[in-house]
Each structure stands twice: as structure tokens, then as C-alpha cells.
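#help-structures
NK: newbie question, is this the right format to request a structure? protein is Glutamine synthetase
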Amino acid sequence: MSLLNDLINLNLSDTTEKIIAEYIWIGGSGMDLRSKARTLPGAVTDPSKLPKWNYDGSSTGQAPGEDSEVILYPQAIFKDPFRKGNNILVMCDAYTPAGDPIPTNKRFDAAKIFTHPDVVAQEPWYGIEQEYTLLQKDTRWPLGWPVGGFPRPQGPYYCGVGADKSFGRDIVDSHYKACLYAGVNISGINGEVMPGQWEFQVGPSVGISAGDQIWIARYILERITEIAGVVLSFDPKPIPGDWNGAGAHTNYSTKSMRNYGGIDVIKKAIEKLGLRHKEHIAAYGEGNERRLTGRHETADINTFSWGVANRGASIRVGRDTEKDGKGYFEDRRPASNMDPYVVTSMIADTTIIWKP
């Protein structure tokens, strides 16, 4: 094992200029991350300088067997925290050989919204709070829970410290540092209300980069839990009953909201979000109806609401934003398994482009 670790940690730059690029994409379910690696002749920092690649889409649920080739277009580069050195992680999206985006390529439509002149002028910022649950590999029961049983009721676990309150901190801290190394703008982590559940925050990120960074952060977390022998779940309600679900609260602001008088812009944006509540809910993650019940710090899925400092509302406006008369708001509806390309672009489309 010692030799294996030595080989894994070899520094390629000692002997060659070649690097390893791990191409990453989203599979057919919309949540399964896939990746494969290739050798490149030297260091690359611009995704447009990277070669396109292909994969077998019939094995990912994205193409028929008789016409299975899907093409990967490199879109964003991050440093590889696993191989280190000049090696890179490459976030890609997927196209047919003719150059058309495949149906599961949500980045393509998001990029169109984020390059719209009105959206570019407003410079939308996002801060996404990604919740997730760590599960025991053999039982698929939350980490730290007695097998077939339940821990003490919720209360001591949120931001808790101690062996009977915090489960999986080594994974969480490893992920935190790996994201910082990779260049993900991860801004914090905390233990969540349900034991075995955690959250990391990414942002502020501008436009399409918010989606790229969340997907890479998810990929890094998947890899770390793979090493640790723990299963990662983005299920919005992994345990039924009196236990909190998992969301991906999305904090949002535009240039107009951040400037003097922005509170009026925020209120108008919230009004527009209310008018398209059903459309947003439909795009905010599968199984969200199990989470948005009006309990456990959620609003009922069928009712749109907003309030200042209200964690039981669809949209929460912070006390500082109310006091300063400018700032941001938080959309608390997205589920933990949402697609960040869909959610971020939809919020921009509704609040900036859409005219009721």
C-alpha cells in the first residue's frame, strides 16, 4: 500500500511536461457525474485550447447504441486536487457530432440567457448553499446513525461539535480544502440540522460560472466520498418523518439590487418570481414535494411567499438588506438535487428578461 500511495502521488513535472486532464460531464439522469482522463502535451489554462473529445452515450443513457457518439466541449478548467501539479479538471457539456446540444445539456440554454445583453449589464451574482447527506455504504443509512435505528431528535446537530453530534467532518474538511485548491470559490461549510447532513456554500459567482463551480464541487465531493467508502446523497428528503430535508438555497442579486434603492428592484423581482412559481417549482429538483411541506424551515410547495428573515418562506430577504435598502435575496425553494445551470439561469430570465 505504501508503494501504491507513492505511485499515486508521483510528481509528473519531475520527468515530463505532459499533464493529465480529467474531462467531466453530466450523465443521462441529470445528476450522475461521469469522467475520464487523457494525456495532453503540456499545461493548459484556456478551455478553448483544449481538444474536444467523445464518449459512448449509449452507456450513459444519452444516445442510442446504433449512433452512440457524443462529443464533449471543454468549458471550464480547475486545478486537480487529486493529481496536483499542472493536472486539471475540465467541466464539459455534451453535443451531437453535428454540433447540436443533446437534451440533457442544460448548460447550453443557460449560456444563452447569461449572454443576453440585459443580463450581462446586470452582472448577476449567485451564492448557492448546497446541502447533502452522507450515507453508510452497506446500509444506505445516514452516517453516525445506529443501523436500523434513529439518533436523538434534531436540535444538537446543527453546527454541532463532538463525536455524538458531528459525523463525517474529515470528509467535509477534505472537500473544503480540495475545492479551494481547485479554484472553486467555496465560501464556507457547516453541519446541518439532521445528523449526517452537511452544507457547503459556493459564491459569490457571476453568471454561468455559478453552475460550473457547483458541478465541479459536487464532483470533488463524489471523489472524496468514494475514497472514504461513504455514499453521497443529494436526495431532498433522504429520511421521512421529523427530519429536515436537503436543499440548495440560492442567493441572488443584480447590479441594480446592489446599488442604492435596490430594495425596490428586489421587491419587483420577487413579485415576478411569484407569478412564475409553478414553472420554477417544476424545474427546481425531483422529489421536492417531499421536502417543501411547510415544515422543517420550508414553505409549502403550492404557496408562494416571501418575508424578511423568514426561513419558512419561499423567498427570504435578509435583515441587512432591509436595513441598507439594497443587497440580495435568497430563493429557498431549490432542492439539493437541482441543476444549478437551470436554477441560476431561470432566476435571471424571470427577474431580468421576462416581461409579465
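mod (FA): yep, format's fine, and the C-alpha cells are attached above. The radius of gyration is 21 Å.
NK: thank you!
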